[in-house]
Amino acid sequence: MATNPGCIVVGAGLAAANVVESLRDNGFDGSITLIGDELDRPYERPPLSKDFLQGKADRDSVFVHGQSWYTDHDITARFGDTVASIDRAAQTVTLATGDTLEYRQLVLATGSSPRRLDVPGAELAGVHTLRRIGDSEQLRAGFTDGARVVLIGAGWIGLELAAAARLAGCAVTVLEFAPLPLQRVLGDELAGYFAELHRAHQVDLRLGIGVTEIVGSGGTVTGVRAGDELFDADLVVVGVGAKPNTELAKAAGLEVDNGVLVDERLRTSDPRIWAVGDVASATNTALGRRIRVEHWDNAIRQGKLAGSVIAGGSGSFDWQPYFYTDQFDLGMEYVGYADAADQVVIRGDKSTGEFIAFWVNDGTVRAAMNVNIWDVNDDLRALTGRQIAADRLADTGIPLTEL
Ligand SMILES: Cc1cc2nc3c(=O)[nH]c(=O)nc-3n(C[C@H](O)[C@H](O)[C@H](O)COP(=O)(O)OP(=O)(O)OC[C@H]3O[C@@H](n4cnc5c(N)ncnc54)[C@H](O)[C@@H]3O)c2cc1C
């Protein structure tokens, strides 16, 4: 048992790395222990479906901090260790190794895991998911010229993988249950735009089709059955979303409902425990509602906020969500939150590949997306939550800063 209990951070991903950095930046002088079940120190996951997967970025470039950063900042790092349970009464965590560590403050940054597909054959060799750096390395090895790649799910990761596989010369089929890719987030018009982008790059995009079986021979995948067709495959990736890693929190009796429930300062129902990043379902004061966000920017900002709060600082979860994607020659950023927009306003001409889209509800801008137009996302962020007439939003003659 540690003689000097301080802050323990469980999970060593992007959110956790930002918690420990923020604790030290904000003058926290207690002990800090960072415990992660992966062998690597915290790294960024976006490159795993983009530049790292495509061989354009090397392994060293994905890490959040340099090798010696943790010791330099007096942080005890335990990589390759799993936290098995939390005893809230005793204020301890027990590791899978049996070691027990005492905490004064505990941060849960356990992230999320890929959802599995519940069909026969899902466990065959050659059927992958993508979450960890090793997964990306396996895909990189399998994305070879002429390989037949079947992607199940046309979400962000599925579409980024489709682009990476096509760029590697693979024959790519994407199977999606919904009538359009990304339809729930983008709505019909822009979901259609992404569908066309992929078709223009010879992705065989099959929509409104349900996978019933993954077939194989000798334990290795050979195809995917969907609808009444069999799609031949050398490699299959299941990209059907992620689920928050809430098991520890639930077993410890914390409030959990599609994520660990936290307030706007990221505190759980136990005042000594916080949750951040993909696993946290937090009260967002800008939106006036609880949300769980599975994005890079959120992991960084919530990590920084929790570190500051624990160190005695101010701040709350008061920002609009942000994310980005890169697919073929399309790069975009999206800011805001629009789960039920009644109007999508386009500024510019979609056919040029450079435009801005606004999601508007009751005359109020809820979200905006800049496609291949850069250095405008802060301006778009400033427009969210404001009432602006659609014809003004669409008018490229009015600068964004004057809307
Ligand atoms: C391939 C890929 C591409 C992405 N691309 C984008 C993008 O383009 N744009 C964007 O905005 N977002 C993107 N994201 C999402 C973004 O990476 C995540 O939102 C972010 O990684 C969340 O960080 P986190 O620290 O909350 O969780 P994670 O990164 O999942 O880290 C959690 C860590 O905790 C560990 N852990 C869990 N339980 C335990 C335990 N009991 N004991 C010890 N350790 C534990 C996990 O193994 C993991 O290492 C992408 C994600 C993936 C997988």
Q: Quickly name the level 1 CATH class of the largest domain.
A: Alpha Beta
Q: Give the CATH topology of the largest domain.
A: FAD/NAD(P)-binding domain
Shape call: globular
Q: Any guess at the CATH architecture of the largest domain?
A: 3-Layer(bba) Sandwich
Structural class: alpha/beta
Distance separating the two termini: 59 Å
Number of helices: 9
Question: How many DSSP E strands?
Answer: 25
Query: Quaternary arrangement of the chains shown?
Result: single chain
Give the CATH H-level superfamily of the largest domain: FAD/NAD(P)-binding domain
Q: Mind summarizing the main beta sheet?
A: 7 strands, mixed
Radius of gyration: 22 Å
Estimate nothing, just give the exact number of structural domains. Answer: 3
Helicity, as a percent range: 10-25%
Mean residue pLDDT: 96
Query: Which ligands are bound?
Result: flavin-adenine dinucleotide
The proportion of residues in beta strands is: 25-35%
Weakly predicted, low-confidence segments = none
Q: How does this structure look, described?
A:
The chain is built from 9 helices and 25 strands. Strands 1, 2, 3, 4, 5, 6 and 18 form a 7-stranded mixed sheet that branches. It has a 5-stranded parallel sheet with strand order 8-15-9-10-11, with helices on one face. Helix 5 links the parallel strand 10 (171-176) and strand 11 (204-207). Helix 1 (14-25) runs parallel beside helix 7. With 403 residues, the chain is of the alpha/beta class. The model has no long low-confidence stretch (mean pLDDT 96). The chain binds flavin-adenine dinucleotide. The site of flavin-adenine dinucleotide has 36 residues, from helix 1, strand 2, helix 7 and strand 21.
